[in-house]
Amino acid sequence: MTSSFEALLPSTERALSHRVAVAQAEGRAPSFVGAVARDGRRVWSGSRSCVDGHAPDADTQYRIGSLTKVFTAVLVMRLRDEGLLDLNDPLEKHLPGTRVGEVTVAQLLGHSAGLGAEAPAPWWERTPGTVRPELADVLGDEPLVQPMGRRHHYSNPGYTLLGALVQAVRGVSWEEALRGEVLEPLGLTRTTTQPIAPHAGGWAVHPWADVMLPEPTEDLGLMAPAGQLWSTADDLCRFAGFLAQGDDRVLCAASVEEMRTPAAPPAAGDWEGGYGLGVQLVHKDGRTLIGHTGSLPGFVACLWVSVADGVAAVALANATSGPLTAAVAADLVRIVADAEPRFPEPWRPLPEAEVDQELLELTGPWYWGTYAFGLRLGPGRGVALEPLRGAGRRAEFRPLPGGGWIGLNGYYAGETLRVVRRPDGSVSHLDLASFVFTREPYEQGDAVPGGVDQAGWRGL
């Protein structure tokens, strides 16, 4: 048995095709493309069009709007990984003269810098970038509308600043950096700043009548890093694999995981979603989805990835409003993940080189006060600590070079777990961020903070 999937079941494919057909009909979209990937490889695509016999396919370009922001964030994270900047650096350190130089790179990535949501009028999405030739034209007279670093407030000008930051540090344009550092290494040959045939045309559909109006397609100029790109379902499925697993040619898995980690508290009333470093996070149907939505006049788009399920979905439409691509993409993920759940990797024993008798002796139950925990060995000499009953603080730990382990997730992320031994070398207890774990609850004569009542355990 293998965990790879060559094709979806016919019943699953029919459910996916039906969802796209309903989306196109109810959303009144001139055309609609859906696609699903498993572990970075497209396994299904389908489309519907208002023109008989002229449906688009997974190689048809659509404008993806704010999905562009994920690509821009990847470029910034590459600069961080190369040591050319720190996410806590103020913008002024690398891009002086913006008048908002105190905001940090991380705040811009996570939309917590306090910048306004939009550039000053006229509406930047429907006017050429030449209307805003300088950053000052993008930011306006009062660029800050929220306290810096206090809350999530989505900002398109913030990603214009990040694009300018990439250019200032790299010494090449945002477009050139994107093409050479992300698109070409990942094989995204159909992701471009300008449309290349075959591509869909953008349309506005009248809200109260079945008539259409063509939308203008503008070059956004300085605003390009916030929403310029065109792409295809095929390319976005490949990009989904990168967002789930990383690619050392672009960003390592740890840095991509960092992008998927919440960076700022969600706005009040928006507890079902959040934002990482250039990546949207939503909780839907009991699973966490990462990716981004996008829209520009004439187009709406969405890419969602369920990392846990190894499933990603793309939804693209060429209408200004109507098609709910975010909901459709989430439904496509759900249909596949529920109907055809991925097989777990087969259980295998640890490599012989990782079997250590001293580590084996640490496994089993430990007690923090009267709370029972179990310590389990993992790969690479790592350990996991988890409550034996009910909810509690679970965490995985990786070994440190000098001994002990560091927490990787949950409450104990970044905290150190170490073994404390008695003078004779026997194990006394585990110390985790000052918490003492003993082999017995409140073990007499051991290092229990506050001591143990000498009368011992008693009945009523």
UniProtKB/TrEMBL annotation:
Keywords: Hydrolase
EC number, as in UniProt: 3.-.-.-
Molecular functions (GO terms): hydrolase activity
Record domain DUF7586: where: 355-439
Transmembrane segments: none
Domain Beta-lactamase-related: 21-337
Catalytic class of the enzyme: hydrolase
Protein name as annotated: Serine hydrolase domain-containing protein
